[in-house]
Structures are given as structure tokens and as C-alpha cells.
């Protein structure tokens, strides 16, 4: 009982302190305080103070009422956060508290119970009829609280739902513990062993509520479970020891009462806790005399690792730090798949990246002392962490370098576009001057001017800003129209296969540019007797365009750079056609690729446009 009182008061004080941070914790503190008062009533009854003890025990209805108040306050945001709802809760709770106080007063005045001997207890509280009414009322209020919990469970999710489940389990545990206190009133001659576990109830009630709300409490509970386990093991060990002493004539020691056994175990546990740190340090110095590390050394290692800006520098830093600390030869291997290049007689720190995580393993350390091996394990952990940090820093630096390079390319593209635009003026002057020359010369000049105009047009198209004017378009009609125009323009027969009625949201002008570039490219590489085939098909989530030609295959060394700018084997070409195609298709969130495996077609370019793009651009 005293332990339950101590734990309940401690928990209530902590809840009261935290009450300003979490809603309803101050009410839960009152609940745990009432539990401490109820246990105090039993202690007063055991010591003969029957009148005051009976009054305190008959305060029982206030506990479930306070618990119901906490439940309603705790779960209020789940139902509603309106001020009217809060006022209704306050009004109902005032009525319930008043009813509980009136019931307590009436049952006390009418003799709710009495104390008499029971089993090994000189005095134990027995309920009379008014006391049973008092108890039934308390049970009803507690049941109402759990009904609210069940309703909340049905509509809650996540951590709140888990807390509610924990509250239900704790409620079942509390019911099992409390039933043992009414054994005397039910004339049951069973010893109430369950009351020995009563100290766990206030802890479990609070923990089930705050486990997911106050994270720091989990660390405390973890330590508490650890020490409780140690205390339990100590008690069991002492019990076994005392039982073994009895046959040896030490019956007095074997007959130590349970209370003293718990006290001695607790004292032993306290002494062990106080001596744990110094004893651990002594044991480490004894077992690892040459492997001791202090916090200053560890901090120095971490700071030195953090200053490394490259893998070579990190290797040199690691080697230097290890030599300064131990003078033991070693070999640092970072991101090396094998140890073939390292001397087999040396100790190795082998750092490798596996599944995105850096690991550092110590190999060939069997001939060193235990202290050096232990220090090597610590050093390896810090080195792996340093590899992780450096890898992340280098990736960020590379990303920044690419960003700056992209920015430079954008600026260069703008400059190129400006130059290309300005070149048109002198070309126009040259074209006008060429009209005064001979026919053959004029024809040659005009051919070269047209070539230059085509190059300028492609440069402007590739380097300029690309804004899409997205419209609902009949792609079938657009596809057929462009193929017929290109057939006349390039003087090349185009076999056309296109499904009808394929509508899609695209920039029709830009898609026409894609088709013209691909068909121009196919016609340029096809002989007079060659063939070009254009196919338009609908797939479940996209529309696919295929441009086939039976010209020569594209060399393998060109495939990786095929869609890069200025990559062309075509005489007179700008080298920007496929690069422009890729840029336009990418802006439509589509895909373009080359295939050399289609039957009867050495060269095929596919374009796939999504029917429902994931990102919708504004129509401009």
C-alpha cells in the first residue's frame, strides 16, 4: 500500500507539472491522487482508525468520476472542439461530481461498511448494503467512461487509437486488482494476492496515455523496466540462496520475512547502481589496459574526420590519427571491393558502401591485444560515420556543381540565341547583294543562305524558352496531314498507318515540329529505293508514334549521345533535330527513344505521349 501511495503521489506530481503542456493531464493527476488517498484509507483501517478510514474508502465514486472527466477532456478534440461542447462537458461533470459527493455522504452517514478481522488481516473493510450501492454507482460511472473510450476507438486512428487500446487493457488489469478488495464482503476466503500488484496500476494508467504524447517518458519507463527486472532477479536469487541455506543449519537466515527480503534486495540494487560506473571503469582498465579512450580523444577524432574534404584526405587523416594514438600499423581501405592491394600482414579498416549505408569492418586484427581490438572497433564506427558524412557532402557539392553548370548553359543558350538572331541581318544583306551577281553564283549563295537560315532556326528553337500552348487536338488528323506534306516536301514515299479519332492535349505546333524533324531525319538517311513508315497507335495510357526507315543502322558509338546537340552524321544538318525533339517531348511529359530491333526496320524512333499527364501546364 505504501508503495502504491508513493508511486501515485509521484506520478500525480509529475502530471501536474506537465499539465500546462498536455490537455487533461491535471485531471489525470487528480485521479492518481485519489488512488493514493484510497490506499491510505486501507492503511488507516488496518491500524484501527475505522471512522476516518470508512469515509475515505467510501470516496470510491469520485475516482471513476474523475476518470470519466479525464476521458471526456482527453478525447474532446476527436469529437469536436467547439466551445459549446466544452461547456456541456463542464455542466455534466459538475452534476456528476455533485451526485458522487452526495452519494458518498449518504452512504457514510448510513453506515456503508465496517471493519472486522479477515484471514491474516486483523481488520479489513466489509461493505454493507449502502456500501454496495456506492460500489455499483462507481462501477456504472467507470463503465460509462469505457463506453466513451470504445466510441473513440471506433473513429480514431494512429497513436490515439493505440493509446485507447492500452487504456482498455489497463482497465481490465485494474478491474482484476480491485476485485480482490471485495473478497471479504462476498465471504470469499481467498487471499487477495492480486493487491500485491496494485503499485503497477497508476504507472500503467499514466503510461498508456502519455506513451505517444510525451516521448521522454519512454526513456524513463525503459530504465524503470530494466531496474525492476534486476530487482526481481535479485529477489529470486536471494530466495533461492536462503532456501539452500536452511539444510545447512542456517534456518534463521532462511526464515527472513518477505518484506525484509524486498528491502534487502532494494538496498543491494541501490548499492549496485552506485558502484556500477566505477566498477565498469575498473573492469575496463583491467581487461583493456591499452585500449582506454576518453571523451576528449573521441571528440578530437570526430572533429578531424569532419575536416576531410576528399576520400584521399579522409584516408590520410584516419591513418594519422590511428598512428598517433596506438603506433600500431594499419591500412585504411575506403570503397575497395577486395584486400588484394593491401599488405596481408597489416591490420585493415575496410570501409564499403552497402545499400546506401557505409560500413567499416576490422580485418586481420587477431594478433593485436584485446584493448587495441576494442579501440579499433570504436575507431571503425567513427570512420564509417565520417564516410557517410563525406559521401553526403560530396553528393551535395556535385549537385551544386551541376546546378551552376546548368545555370551557365542557360546563360550560354541565351547568348547563342541572341547571336543567332543578330546573324539574320547580315544574311539578308548578303541575299540582297547576291541579286546583282551571275545566276550560278547567286544560286550558290542562296543555297548557303538557306542552310544558314535552317541552322539559325534550329539554334533558336533549341536554346530559346519553350512555352507550350496546350489544346485539345485531333492527333490522327495532325499526323496524317504532316505525313502527306513531308511526302511532297522530301519527295519520299511514306507508308502511313494511323488510327482515327485519337484526341490528346498537346501543343499542336510543337508536335508538328517533332514529326517534321523525325520524318526529315528518316528521309535523309533513306536511299531513293528505300522506304519510310509512320505509325500512330493508341495504348492504354498513352499514344505512341513510330517513324521507321530501312536506311543504314546507327553506329553503336553514337547511340549514347544520339539525342545530344550537335551529334549528326548528316551532311548539311545542324545536329539539333533530335535534341529539339527530345526537349519538346520531355515538356509534354512523354518519352522518345531509338530502337534498332524492329523486324525489317534497321532504324526506328518512337515517341510516346501520355493521355493524362501527371502535371498540367497552363495554356499560354
What is the top-level CATH class of the largest domain? Mainly Alpha
Q: Walk across the major sheet and give the strand order.
A: 7-9-10-12-11
Distance between the termini: 79 Å
* General shape: elongated
Per the CATH scheme, the topology name of the largest domain is Rhopdopsin 7-helix transmembrane proteins
What would you give as the CATH superfamily of the largest domain? Rhodopsin 7-helix transmembrane proteins
Q: From N to C, what is the helix and strand string?
A: HHHHHEEHHHHHHHHEEEHHEHEEHEEHEE
CATH architecture of the largest domain: Up-down Bundle
Number of domains: 5
Protein structure class = alpha+beta
How many E strands?
12
Sequence stretches where pLDDT stays below 50 over 5 or more residues: 337-344, 615-620
Radius of gyration: 43 Å
Q: Number of helical segments? A: 18
Helix content: 55-70%
Name the beta content range: 5-15%
For the biggest sheet, the summary is: 5 strands, mixed
Amino acid at each position: 500500500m505504501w508503495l502504491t501511495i508513493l508511486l501515485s503521489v509521484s506520478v500525480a506530481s509529475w502530471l501536474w507539472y506537465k499539465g500546462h503542456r498536455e490537455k487533461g493531464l491535471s485531471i489525470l493527476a487528480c485521479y492518481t491522487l485519489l488512488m493514493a488517498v484510497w490506499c491510505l484509507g486501507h492503511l488507516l483501517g488496518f491500524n484501527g482508525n475505522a471512522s476516518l478510514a470508512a469515509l475515505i474508502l467510501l470516496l470510491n465514486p469520485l475516482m471513476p468520476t474523475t476518470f470519466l472527466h479525464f476521458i471526456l477532456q482527453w478525447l474532446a478534440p476527436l469529437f469536436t472542439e467547439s466551445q459549446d461542447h466544452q461547456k456541456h462537458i463542464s455542466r455534466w461533470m459538475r452534476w456528476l461530481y455533485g451526485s458522487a459527493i452526495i452519494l458518498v455522504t449518504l452512504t457514510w452517514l448510513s453506515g456503508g461498511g465496517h471493519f472486522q478481522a479477515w484471514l491474516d488481516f486483523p481488520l479489513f473493510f466489509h461493505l454493507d448494503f449502502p456500501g454496495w450501492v456506492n460500489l455499483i454507482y462507481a462501477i456504472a460511472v467507470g463503465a460509462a467512461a469505457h463506453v466513451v473510450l470504445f466510441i473513440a476507438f471506433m473513429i480514431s486512428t494512429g497513436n490515439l487509437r493505440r493509446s485507447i487500446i492500452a487504456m482498455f487493457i489497463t482497465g481490465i488489469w485494474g478491474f482484476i486488482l480491485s476485485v480482490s478488495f471485495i473478497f471479504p464482503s462476498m465471504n470469499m476466503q481467498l487471499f487477495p494476492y492480486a493487491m500485491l500488484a496494485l503499485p503497477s496500476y497508476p504507472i500503467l494508467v499514466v503510461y498508456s496515455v502519455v506513451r505517444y504524447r510525451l516521448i521522454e517518458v519512454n526513456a524513463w519507463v525503459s530504465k524503470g523496466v530494466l531496474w525492476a527486472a534486476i530487482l526481481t532477479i535479485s529477489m529470486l536469487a536471494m530466495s533461492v540462496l536462503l532456501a539452500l541455506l536452511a539444510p545447512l543449519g542456517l534456518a534463521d537466515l532462511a526464515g527472513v520475512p518477505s518484506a525484509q527480503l524486498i528491502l534487502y534486495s532494494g538496498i543491494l540494487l541501490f548499492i549496485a547502481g552506485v558502484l556500477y560506473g566505477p566498477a565498469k571503469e575498473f573492469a575496463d582498465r583491467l581487461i583493456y589496459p591499452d585500449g582506454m579512450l576518453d571523451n576528449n580523444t573521441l571528440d578530437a577524432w570526430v572533429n578531424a574526420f569532419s575536416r576531410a574534404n576528399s576520400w584521399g584526405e579522409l584516408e590520410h587523416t584516419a591513418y594519422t590519427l590511428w598512428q598517433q594514438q596506438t603506433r600500431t600499423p594499419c591500412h585504411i581501405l575506403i570503397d575497395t571491393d577486395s584486400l588484394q592491394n593491401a599488405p596481408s600482414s597489416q591490420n585493415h579498416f575496410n570501409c564499403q558502401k552497402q545499400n546506401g549505408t557505409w560500413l567499416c569492418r576490422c580485418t586481420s586484427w587477431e594478433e593485436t591485444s584485446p584493448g587495441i581490438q576494442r579501440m579499433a572497433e570504436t575507431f571503425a564506427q567513427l570512420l564509417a560515420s565520417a564516410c557517410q558524412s563525406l559521401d553526403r557532402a560530396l553528393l551535395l557539392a556535385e549537385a551544386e556543381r551541376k546546378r551552376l553548370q546548368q545555370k551557365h548553359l542557360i546563360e550560354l543558350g541565351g547568348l547563342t540565341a541572341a547571336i543567332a538572331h543578330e546573324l539574320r541581318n547580315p544574311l539578308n544583306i548578303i541575299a540582297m547583294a547576291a541579286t546583282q551577281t551571275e545566276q550560278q553564283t547567286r544560286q550558290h549563295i542562296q543555297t548557303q543562305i538557306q542552310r544558314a537560315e535552317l541552322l539559325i532556326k534550329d539554334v533558336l528553337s533549341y536554346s530559346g524558352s519553350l512555352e507550350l500552348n496546350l489544346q485539345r487536338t485531333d492527333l490522327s488528323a495532325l499526323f496524317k496531314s504532316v505525313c502527306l506534306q513531308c511526302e511532297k516536301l522530301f519527295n519520299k514515299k511514306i507508308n502511313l498507318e494511323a488510327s482515327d479519332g485519337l484526341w490528346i492535349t498537346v501543343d499542336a505546333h510543337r508536335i508538328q515540329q517533332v514529326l517534321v524533324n523525325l520524318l526529315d531525319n528518316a528521309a535523309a538517311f533513306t536511299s531513293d529505293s528505300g522506304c519510310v513508315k509512320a505509325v500512330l497507335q493508341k495504348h492504354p495510357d498513352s499514344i505512341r508514334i513510330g517513324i521507321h526507315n530501312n536506311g543504314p543502322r546507327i553506329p553503336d558509338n553514337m547511340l549514347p549521345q544520339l539525342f545530344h546537340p550537335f551529334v549528326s552524321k548528316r551532311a548539311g544538318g545542324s545536329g539539333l533535330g533530335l535534341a529539339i525533339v527530345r526537349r519538346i517531348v520531355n515538356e509534354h511529359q512523354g518519352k522518345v527513344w531509338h530502337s534498332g530491333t524492329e523486324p525489317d526496320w534497321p532504324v526506328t524512333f518512337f515517341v510516346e505521349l501520355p493521355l493524362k499527364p501527371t502535371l498540367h501546364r497552363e495554356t499560354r
